[in-house]
Amino acid sequence: MKFTALQIAEILGGDIIGNPDVEVSKLSKIEEGTEGSLTFLANPKYKSYIYSTKASITIVNKTFEAEHAITTTLIKVEDAYKSFSKLLEYYNQAKLNKFGIEQPSHISKSTTYGEGVYIGAFTYIGDNVTIGDNVKIFPNCYIGDNVKIGDNTILFSGVKVYFDCVIGNNCVINSGVIIGADGFGFAPNENGEYSKVPQTGNVILEDFVDIGAATTIDRATLGSTIIRKGVKLDNQIQVAHNVEIGKNTVIAAQTGIAGSTKIGENCIIGGQVGIAGHIIIGNNVKIQAQSGIGRNVKDDEMLQGSPAFGYADYNKSYVYFKNLPKIMKEINKIDKK
């Protein structure tokens, strides 16, 4: 996919200094620019590279004035960083701009889908599935019976969505995600063996939810596991049955959330956090990486440690912990006296 400097300038509303017909087909850092690449200069720290970069086109602020000879074509804009970000989004959308149904694939006759849909090869779509407009389902996906997928949602290769689950509009679900697998429900019997408890619920993802690669979200025992609007989940997260995550909460990789726990809105949860089941975490909570949460958490708390406690108290305690050998040595001297 190639773009000329003139096309890029039109997208960004910028002014060209140099060759308007020069073409680019890839993106690069300014210090690593090669012929045929597009880059940008926003941080003054990297200004020296504009005189040596081999990138064909460089986006710069309108205030930039060259002090030496340059070979790259310039596109001058109000804000180079924001313009480059806009271009990245445009470029990404262009790459994902696929349409049609590839073969071989299996789509049940009872499935309905909207306009502008892409369904990749080796995808299986079950009975009574509803798929909205502009949905992109990449190859090797599985969509179970009675699933509903909203408009403008993307499922990357290898996503598995079990029966009865609901996915909203404008969601992004990355490769290897499993939505709606059985919750971890077993009951001991009189022989000390464990019997499976049927998991009859589903998973609901509201609008603008992003799910990272290889994350698993289990179906509810009864009712629904619910991921509210705007939630962002990183890679390799485990969300157990009947969990509810409030809107705009962000959770980093390798976090595990046990069953029936409720997490509030606008929370920020670090990587490798372990959260016990059947607890309530309030709104605007911040949990540091590798913390263990085993109790209810009030709104606006900031926690660290395992078991976790107040962030400020943790830092104070850690100062003493680091000096514990020295402190014990002094205590032993006092004991001897």
What features would you describe in this structure?
The chain is α/β, with parallel strands linked by helices. The protein has two domains: 3-95, 3-Layer(aba) Sandwich (Udp-n-acetylmuramoylalanyl-d-glutamate--2,6- Diaminopimelate Ligase, Chain: A, domain 1); 100-314, Hexapeptide repeat proteins (UDP N-Acetylglucosamine Acyltransferase, domain 1, 3 Solenoid), CATH 2.160.10. Helix content is 15%, strand content 30%. The chain has four helices and 40 strands. The strands form six sheets. A twelve-stranded mixed beta sheet has the order 8-11-14-17-20-25-28-31-34-37-39-40. A ten-stranded parallel beta sheet has the order 9-12-15-18-21-26-29-32-35-38, with no helix packed on it. A nine-stranded parallel beta sheet has the order 10-13-16-19-24-27-30-33-36, with no helix packed on it. The radius of gyration is 26 Å and the shape is flat. The mean pLDDT is 93. Pathway: Bacterial outer membrane biogenesis; LPS lipid A biosynthesis.
**Overall pLDDT confidence:** 93
Q: What is the CATH topology of the largest domain?
A: UDP N-Acetylglucosamine Acyltransferase, domain 1
Shape category: flat
Number of strands: 40
Query: Which structural category do the helix and sheet elements fall into?
Result: alpha/beta
Biggest sheet, strands in spatial order?
8-11-14-17-20-25-28-31-34-37-39-40
Main sheet overview: 12 strands, mixed
Number of helices: 4
Low-confidence stretches: none
